[in-house]
Description:
With 163 residues, chain A is mostly helical. Chain A has five helices and one strand.
Amino acid sequence: xxxxxxxxxxxxxxxxxxxxxxxxxxxxxxxxxxxxxxxxxxxxxxxxxxxxxxxxxxxxxxxxxxxxxxxxxxxxxxxxxxxxxxxxxxxxxxxxxxxxxxxxxxxxxxxxxxxxxxxxxxxxxxxxxxxxxxxxxxxxxxxxxxxxxxxxxxxxxxxxxxx
Amino acid sequence: xxxxxxxxxxxxxxxxxxxxxxxxxxxxxxxxxxxxxxxxxxxxxxxxxxxxxxxxxxxxxxxxxxxxxxxxxxxxxxxxxxxxxxxxxxxxxxxxxxxxxxxxxxxxxxxxxxxxxxxxxxxxxxxxxxxxxxxxxxxxxxxxxxxxxxxxxxxxxxxxxxxxxxxxxxxxxxxxxxxxxxxxxxxxxxxxxxxxxxxxxxxxxxxxxxxxxxxxxxxxxxxxxxxxxxxxxxxxxxxxxxxxxxxxxxxxxxxxxxxxxxxxxxxxxxxxxxxxxxxxxxxxxxxxxxxxxxxxxxxxxxxxxxxxxxxxxxxxxxxxxxxxxxxxxxxxxxxxxxxxxxxxxxxxxxxxxxxxxxxxxxxxxxxxxxxxxxxxxxxxxxxxxxxxxxxxxxxxxxxxxxxxxxxxxxxxxxxxxxxxxxxxxxxxxxxxxxxxxxxxxxxxxxxxxxxxxxxxxxxxxxxxxxxxxxxxxxxxxxxxxxxxxxxxxxxxxxxxx
Lengths: 163, 497
């Protein structure tokens, strides 16, 4: 194990707890399913979900055991693992968030170009002007191809008015 | 109609100019996405689903089958020429293939992989042609209880086979099944797990989940790892195999095929295990053991053949039982559902054009792929040179485009982002992604069969144990779950063993 890794706040343990939490959330969700007791069918809409919810909790328990016993080691803790950085994650997240914020407001081309530029920056592209230009060209060509060639309706905005 | 007649009819469907065009488009796209790191056939079919809605189902499936086979050919190119292998089934190929390429023998490695894929693909397609109708005939006897038991077996084997640990495979599977529960229950009309969000009532679309896990999750994963620069081995010297290469390749091709097809055809799937086995066998049987670990052609020929034969085998349970055992097969099942078709024994009677046109197009696709991959290899190598920032930027544009065009909904794009983060965590913490996709598609079908069986038996759960086939399948499933643990325990008791 790499030094400095917390014994309990490890990703593996948190993920195992997450699976258990999902199972518990599904128990509550299952209880919220209205089941009619007078119906003909004896197997209602809640039976299968009960099984899945309980299975999630049980498997979460097995995962927790795997994580605590050190049998389960994600990439971050392996000796030969490549260095890890969350900065690109933030950039690509920004791109995806901008995409769903902009797509119906500014149109497909601007939203996609923003996503492209953020992703490329996250991957280390530093030539802003060139990246922005490529992003706009690819998005624009995609828009034209899909709207006119394949008849896929994509949201129009500022730049889409050009065609 | 005999199988030969049916196949001939299939060729008459597949050999129209129009369908040849779709097959060519499919194998070309498939090779391209197989070569490109970061995308594969499952993702490509998912991206194409929203825009092929209006296409004739037979043509669409001919194209999908081309993508499926093409992805296997393309994947081997990447694993031989790039120091980072693409999909998991070609990891083994990359061991010897990469070393061969470094020694300047990339050409023969690529040729042995492509010809081996062709031979394995063709033999396996012949086996598929004759095995599938027989399995379909047998499956006509299956009732809801048998189908449910078969799906449970498939769930356990897929979880055990795809990944490094059973709990992690099962967690992935259950995550998929749990997502599949969201939305209106089709039998009673009750809303389940929709949390009051109207867009959730229709359920979470499998296309979004596949794109999220495979495209967005993969992009996050690759971006956050600071690996050294990738090196692409150039193809120097002769691309053609020497006489010695042929002599050393043909037996591994055949042995790989013999290993791969049965593994693919069983309702457990997984192209990886037969590739590992093939590698181990070739290493033992070779006349040149000193070359293993330094670039032995047998280590490329065998696993590549096994990989392709397994890919053809996977189509047996998919077409005859509606049982997907790989991520690509799962998304193809979703495609069947999009057209209102249910794969299974009846499909051979109700849609002979589609089934046999699809099978015939596999023969044609294999020939096309051999031509595309041997002389045109230089073209595909160019694809590897696309700078990563622009490649992944482009992948995400298509990912969001495919997602948005499903329902023109921004909510879908938000779901994509969330599923993408989940996919990223799964990759980072070594949880296999494919079981989740299979669970999402197969979960609702399993529930349906379970409720049908219980409705017939009036709520008696013993119905699954009364029918011998269903009881046997469930016993097998149990064995997959607890067998390894028992084996370990008994071995611990007798340490000398």
